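re: the backbone from monday

yeah here it is again, tokenized this time
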């Protein structure tokens, strides 16, 4: 029996919104959050470019 993959509802509150993502090395990335998964892998849109951030490096997501 295959179970449907579900994203945590708390993570979905950020989808489609402008956010600031802070990484372990304290670098910050601003952009529109396009996608997020349960491992915190994130795709941000910045100036019509897509940026992929690995979830293991993310320590904070802030609504902008």
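seq for it, each position gets an aa:
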């Amino acid at each position: 029996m295959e179970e449907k993959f579900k994203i945590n509802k708390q993570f979905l509150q950020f989808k489609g919104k402008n956010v600031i993502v802070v990484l372990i090395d304290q670098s910050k990335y601003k952009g529109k959050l396009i996608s997020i998964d349960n491992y915190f892998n994130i795709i941000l849109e910045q100036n019509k470019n897509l940026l992929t951030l690995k979830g293991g490096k993310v320590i904070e997501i802030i609504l902008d």
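The mean pLDDT is 90. The chain has one helix and five strands.
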